[in-house]
Fold each of these.
Amino acid sequence: MAHQATDGQALDDTDGSAGHWAFGTGFDEPLAGVDTTVPDGIDPADLGEYCLMLGDDALLLAQRLIQWITACPELEEEIAVANMALDLLGQARLLLARAGAAGVLGRSRQQAGGSIPDEDALAYFRDADEFRSTGLVEAPNGDFAQTMVRLLAAATVRLAVFARLRRSRDPVLAAIAAKGVNELAYHRDHAARWVLRLGDGTAESRRRAQAGADAVWPLLADIFTPADLEERLTAAGVAVDPAGVREEVTAVLTQVLDQATLRLPAWPGEAPPRGRTGGYGPERAELLGTLQGLARRHPEAAW
Amino acid sequence: MTRVSAATDARVVAETVTDPELPMLTLADLGVLRAVRTEADGAVVVEITPTYSGCPAMGAMRADLVRALRAAGFGDVDVRTVLSPPWSTDWISAEGRRKLAAHGIAPPGRAPARSPGPVPLQLGPARRTAACPQCGSPDTVEQSEFGATACKALRRCRSCGEPFEHVKEI
């Protein structure tokens, strides 16, 4: 029945005969028709929360990237940044829908109207302490060089995790990861080519690329430290232990910075997971303010 | 006239639906239409797969499929998303490639093989090539890996000078 209702709504939208909620896509639940039964032996609450971790990283990095729209150094780059943000937004939608299907909605359902889909309730109506993203994606963009260094680091980590998640015991998560791998490979390599061009470019571009690397590297401190939930789900064959991707990530980042003739910043000491366990700073609150402000101010808005 | 089954009918109807962003292609040409079947109770189940995770056209595709099938007399239509295996440009049909080229869009070459292991870093310029859909020259250069839609890159022909879009391999 749910599918028929969705189809009917989609038809109405296309015909222009009915308004829909202004802040969602209004037409489509991204997992419509996908079997979202949680396999035996996997704790649905853990799985949902893990999907929030991965989905929130994508959502907030997309939000940071789109802050470049109308401000990129060239038109082609603006299109590239928008494309990458759209890929990440798509990954976020799938992962938040997966979390919702596993029953993990936090307080969002109490704050969002009943007609708002789970994925949108999770994106717009969770408070900052309920997000599970990392500081690596939440940090302000800085200049374009710093933005590309951060994208390189974030895409490298995410690609390494997603490549392994293709073997997750949750078939939905494995399918989301398999799609994401193809997209993230484009993002990582695009950012890497910018870091080469800037690092091995003019004195000014080199100065900015080096400053960007120096600003981004400390954000890697808690990236490779698993939260308790990640350890449990890794043992269950569902998740990827972030400690297990450290070697691959450091090798890729070192290779790019070497080739860009940049000085490799000191690797930060290992810190306990912060964003993954609900800790956050003003960056997350500021970012969510711009992401959620309008939807929360006008929760029933339709067009 | 040969009598065809309802399932064949539904498939024929579904295969006429075009892509919202590449309207010269049907969803079947694009490899997005994965299956059409008719259940015992007469309900039609259609499976589609997104090109990219963020494909914004999925909703329009679903609506177009439902509308076309209902107009053909199929009252109960269920359009389902399938995510696995992920869409590849290798699924664009020969007919789809011909139509793309005829509309000035260079069709994709062979998609890169994906191993189950780490994805190797590619720091040089993309190794893609594409002949110019206007003059046929192979002497073309990529201007941006990302184009007006997620599935296209921007290229320019060095022979005739024309810019063109290229469906990039994935």
Amino acid sequence: MRGRRPSAQRVSVMKRTKTIKVDYLARVEGEGAMDVRIRGGQVTEVRLRIFEPPRFFEAFLRGRRFTEAPDITARICGICPVAYQMSAVAAMEDVCGVQVEEPVRLLRRLLYCGEWISSHSLHIYLLHAPDFLGYESAIHMARDHPEVVQRGLGLKKAGNDLMTLLGGREVHPINVRVGGFYRVPAKAELAQIAERLKWARDAALETVRWAGTLPFPDYEHDYEFVALRHAREYPIVEGRLVSNRGLDIAVREYDHHFVEEQVPYSNALHSRLRTGGAYLVGPLARYNLNFDRLPAAVQEAAREAGLGPVCRNPFQSIVVRSVEVLYACEEALRLIDLYEPPQRPFVEVCPRAGTGYGCTEAPRGILYHRYTIDAEGVITDAKIVPPTAQNQKAMEEDLRAFVAPRVDLDHATLTWQCEQAIRNYDPCISCATHFLTLRVDRE
Amino acid sequence: MCSTRVQRDGRWQALVIGVGNPYRRDDAVGREVVRRLRRRALSGVQLVEQDGEGTALLEVWEGADLVILVDAVASGAAPGTVHRFDAAEGPLPATLARGSTHAMGVAEAVELARALGRLPRRLLVYGIEGEHFSPGVGLSVRVREAVDRVVASILQDLRGGGELDG
């Protein structure tokens, strides 16, 4: 863990400008900064600045083969490579007019369950939980609560094992291709991992119960939630894009409803709705828009942990993530139970000129890919909108609303609470371009 | 899998882990050390290359008696400087906690393992001071020179005669 709880040694008060500066925000993925300006007891400005250099993925995808997109874009993130692969193959299969066979579709869902389990468990236990229990880091938390941290590591490993089996390796999987997989597992291989997932399901249920007992600040925000919605399933690899304020569109209509804007202080584009402003993607959005798609047992666990069908307190996202880990374990076991190896691991995909659209639910929210390819299958245009980029505006608005009634807190406490508010989002700056120095400046 | 699997009595006697990003020049020096050791076909020694993700380290050294971890560091010392630490003697210096966009690096993994009682019985950490960490492959001259010294020192550790062992 890179940082520590703000303490005398970390917070330097620069007298002339009356700025409190935290050198580095701990427990987020990537590098950036958050500035909060307070004048006369009012929050005048909140800026999320992402200063990791731009990575130009969209530019260097141009001129590459359409079949290369899943492996190239997987490199954008070491935490959610499966999401990049899945959105890429969805877009390429869309443009080429191909539908994969049901067993392949289900295997993709299974692989994605592995990533949800792994990514969520990392955030819940190693990055987020120390905030609620008052520890500087997971290392400090582990000294007092070793069994809790062990459970988290075990869950993460179960997710990684699933990703390794289906993806070829746990980081940057190499087994996904446009049209399917290079190799599909034998039933016996899945049976083996099912044993580990049964342990994970029990551990996930304990996680939900434990997360429900954490102390949460009394704070709610009236977000516009955006997530995928599927006819039958809790959304992972497909669905329509919906919101709690009436949005209901096909993925290919994304660009008509969402825009990306450059802001002078950030290397990541900010997304907003054309008709409005900020919107929220991720576990809270998925859960609120798809509670009825969760199996009864998972709904029951959520209720026992104190969640209703709608949760507007971003601090409770740790409970929602735990519910999603439980769901991913249940779903993985269900998919393994149903599994019959497909006749062939992939269908041959012939390129055809056009534009394709793909959107899947990465652990942090919807991940949109759009590609234009020519008749030879060469990519001529690419657009990738990761979840953290979409959440930037909501994060700024959230900070503004959160800080307003708390401006009288001492600097160190306020700074620490702001950091926590940001971690609710599990921001992946590496994806968005990348986090985090936090500065509260007031007169 | 980049490993030499040699096992006796159901346990690895020793495990050497080379940590680093192969496409960030000197960051790959830990991996280079492991590759050198691989050519020697040592018996009873497992050799692993790893990207340095902390939680994976805890898993890979599970059950090993002696673990030697080699990583590149940027503490400000002269390029090629070799730091050697015995984890039993206390936390690794903070200057060796290399920045990573991942949640946990090597130094943090060692402390997490210590808190959880999951440290190997003996853990030695070599930190080799790097010079260039820009994208690309190939070690800088002074870092390459350090590889020979570290390989020799590790061979001594494996024989049970590490210089810090007295």
